Amino acid sequence: MSGAGMSRDPLNRDQISEALAELPGWDLRDGKLHRTFEFPDFRAAFAFMTSVALRAEAMDHHPEWRNVYGRVEVWLQTHSARGVTQLDLDLARAMEDCAG
Amino acid sequence: MSGAGMSRDPLNRDQISEALAELPGWDLRDGKLHRTFEFPDFRAAFAFMTSVALRAEAMDHHPEWRNVYGRVEVWLQTHSARGVTQLDLDLARAMEDCAG
Known about the structure:
The structure is a homodimer.
Chain A: H1 13-20, E1 27-29, E2 32-38, H2 42-59, E3 64-68, E4 71-76, H3 86-99
Antiparallel strand pairs in A: 1-2, 2-4, 3-4
């Protein structure tokens, strides 16, 4: 993915589409990477969120997310770039790891 | 607050107003108790969420919440009652404790 670019440069639609092909469950919604994760209960959902929080803090890149019981809905965008960047893709992949 | 009632019985508007008078920052929005908490950064916001998560799990009553960086927006309602109950007030107070 766009290895020559800076991680906080906005990606174009083709680059995003190419990356989404390898991220099942994710789509582009209102200019943000979007996915809903479903867990059996709050405990599992919050365990996931805690794992993601540690990764996000280490990346210094944070999600917008909404939780209700076992459901965690996520939107990723790089505010400074006003678009989706490599950082968002990296965080999406980290979330997939955490959802295991 | 309605000490004779069951904690999962819906409260009426007067009971909710009376309780909100002692919960600064909270209001009733779309039939749910609502407040936005602001923290200096993600780390502080997620530390708050973690404290609340432990309390919520112990109460077996969970929030609907949305987090973006240092902001945590919360909506509380008891789904089985289709309204606000004593449990929601208890969770709101627990959140105030956690926000310190």
